[in-house]
Batch of 2 targets.
Target 1
Amino acid sequence: MKKVIFAAALISVLAVMSVSAALDDARVRVIHASPDAPAVDVWANGAPLFVNAAFKGITDWKNVPSGTYDIEVVPAGATNPVVIDATLRLSRFRDYTVIATGNLADIQPLVLIDRTVAPSRKFAGIRFVHASPDAPAVDIAVKGGPVLFKNVEFREHTKYRWVMPGKYDLEVRVAGTDTVALEVPGVMLKSSTQYTAIAVGQLSDSSLGAVLAEDRQSKFA
């Protein structure tokens, strides 16, 4: 009987420790936005974190212990060349989106901290990242409606803007003009949810496009 009680107690303690460790974690994901780079693997402190991330791909979230990581990005299935070599500091309870930006010759990581709580269940949140290396500064507007973000340059990102949930036809315009560089129709934004919209590809080869990533759905009592 004592052995049974001890085993049950040990399982309970281990379960609590496991939950506590998870609560102390950060979350991280990677978005591949380098138009001429191959699919990649992402290594953290010498161990694979994400594998075979392709252009326009959004990885699943990974829970990792808070701390400092040496990050290396290499072609998928290879160990070299290392195309990104960076240090990433992750704080507990935070969500991070790491975006590979620029052409391969100038590839750099852009690290975003994601908001995880909406101000109200009535709203959706959206922010914008300019990751098209040969596109000029842009405005993001609702077709036939307001401009949401103004004069965003390459490798810049905006803060979240809170809008009513629904379906939006968005336009990427040359900054300060009505010239539409890209139409993004039918963008569905759900209430209590935050999104990151990313301009990817290049104007020069007509590959300019958009990626929409769901950051997190807020919880309300």
Target 2
Amino acid sequence: MITISPAAIKEITRLKSKVGKQELLFCLEVTPGGCSGWIYKLGFTTPTQSDRLYQSNGIDIVVNLESIKYLNGLTLDYSEDLMGGAFRFYNPNAVTFCGCGNSFSTSAAT
């Protein structure tokens, strides 16, 4: 299960309107990289048959099969401060985090 906060939904909706293709769905995945081994990747896509679809607060979320074990239980939030706005990831699977907040490692086998 993935949870998206109301603030994150508002930002996702804003970004999707800028893309201009309402048929695309919000995509959340992890890819190798970053300081701690894995980094979050956000975007909009057309789902494939192998993708898993989640729904949170009215938003459809596409997750590829490789990312599911790293994202189960994730809460995605969005907040703004004097430096600007950013998505915040609260991931119960992460055991270490990079200072940037976008890179993490888990105890799951890769």
